[in-house]
Amino acid sequence: MRALLGLAAAAALIAGPAPAADPLRAGADMVRDRALTDPTAYAVVESLSTEVGARPAGSEAAARARDWGVAKLLGLGFSNVRVESFPLTGWSRGAESAMLTAPYEAGLAILGLGGSVSTPPEGIEGEAVVFHAYADLLAAPVGSLTGRIVIVTQPMTRTQEGAGYGAANPMRRSGASEAARRGAVAYLVRSLATGVSREPHTGALNYQPGAPKIPAAALSVIDAEQIDRLAKLPTPIRIRLKLASAMAPGTGWTVVGEIPGTEHPEQVILIGGHLDSWDPGTGAIDDGAGIAIAVGAARLAGAAPHPPKRTLRVAMFGAEEMDFTNAAFTAAHKADVANIVAIGEIDEGADRVWSAQFPAGTTGLPEMKVLAASLTGLGIYVSPEPSRFGGSDIAGLTAAGAPLINLRQDASRYFNWHHSSEDTLDKIDPAQLNQNVAAWAAFLYVASQTDLNLRPAVPPKP
């Protein structure tokens, strides 16, 4: 609590008192400063990660998370709380093991990749081919890896904005299919992680059309580094892999709640995070934190002395990790795009916001200048780069024209833990979590109290 109070005091000193003649700035600063000590967001993520825990899409736990989301929004005073269901293919993890069998026997720490097919019950054993760079796998001729187990050990780069993850993602998403096209019978990839740990990091793969489906798993960083060292020796490397995963048709659920606008209820400002998580941890930073930030910010902006003129809508997206929400949510809401004032998804953990990105050509608007001044008090600067990608669950709606807001979180620590057993509540710093809530609350206040238009002006036809 002392840390939260200290952050609030520091923010007030940096920002200074809002001019008395500017009630919009005063209101934005008020909800911002209240957020810095508000317990709501931490209570929400603590509740979700403790009472529900891991919640893979299509699982029984996902149904519990749905019910939790409805009860939480109703309990916090949201209106029009509802569940939007959609079909999906659920993937479940069974028994898994990997063993180095040559040049000596040793266990390997792995997690099967989401969507991976199983091995035969007896497993797969074969000689391994190690690629230190993914580009080297792509350069290998078709047929050159027949019968082999391919291992890619390229490390992921740590960056503040998370760009290292985007650069490394094809290794996990497409690597199995690329290896299979070249004749491989199984695929292992160094975990997409920035920490040095024996805890592997899972994540989804996407089998490519025309390529055989082979079993695939992520190696822990420490085991991948050991494989790298073994690859320098003249002796062959052999691996035995067993995966017993399963897939079955299921249902996903997105939970939605609102604080209705008083003057323009049809105009919607929509923010959210994803309700599903991977199975090894408890989904605290990925993405319980995003849900908590959205709920906490909307609640504060909606509880200001002047109620919002436009509707604040919070979405708990039902199946982000396996890529099912976007199509379903887009289909359900594409007709509403003209009434979406702004949209944003929070899915980079719980560490502080350091940069804000808005639609092209909007930073000079009077309302946005007020917002920028308020965000300065949180140590956030407005980037000259316009917002582009803001989350996979809303990608279809942003492509259809919904104005995207992107408050960039510091991802320097996030990939130490995400998609692993270490995605747990202890990784969340309450003061940094509340700084996120403060930034989003200030934006929601400004956007809901004004006629802010974030759509680019259409140039006149010649």
List keywords for this structure.
462 residues; alpha/beta; Aminopeptidase; Glucose Oxidase, domain 1; 2 domains; eight-stranded mixed beta sheet; 16 strands; 33% helix; 23% strand; elongated; disordered N terminus; disordered C terminus
Helix-strand layout with pairing:
Layout: H1 2-15, H2 23-35, H3 40-52, H4 60-75, E1 79-92, E2 96-102, E3 106-108, E4 110-112, E5 124-131, H5 134-139, E6 149-152, H6 163-173, H7 175-181, E7 186-190, E8 216-219, H8 221-230, E9 238-243, E10 246-259, E11 264-274, H9 284-302, E12 310-317, H10 325-333, E13 340-345, E14 353-357, H11 366-376, E15 381-382, H12 395-399, E16 406-409, H13 430-449
Parallel strand pairs: 5-6, 6-7, 7-8, 11-12, 11-13, 14-15
Antiparallel strand pairs: 1-10, 2-3, 2-9, 4-8, 5-9, 10-12, 14-16
Helix pairs in contact: 2-11, 2-13, 3-9, 9-13, 11-13
Give a written overview of the molecule.
With 462 residues, the protein is of the alpha/beta class. It folds into 2 domains: 2-91 and 249-449, Zn peptidases (Aminopeptidase, 3-Layer(aba) Sandwich); 94-244, 3-Layer(bba) Sandwich (Glucose Oxidase, domain 1), CATH 3.50.30. It has 13 helices and 16 strands. It has helices at 2-15, 23-35, 40-52, 60-75, 134-139, 163-173, 175-181, 221-230, 284-302, 325-333, 366-376, 395-399, 430-449, and strands at 79-92, 96-102, 106-108, 110-112, 124-131, 149-152, 186-190, 216-219, 238-243, 246-259, 264-274, 310-317, 340-345, 353-357, 381-382, 406-409. Helix 2 (23-35) runs parallel beside helix 11, helix 2 runs antiparallel to helix 13 (430-449) and helix 11 runs antiparallel to helix 13 (430-449). The relative contact order is 0.18. Mean pLDDT is 94; it is low at 1-20 and 458-462.
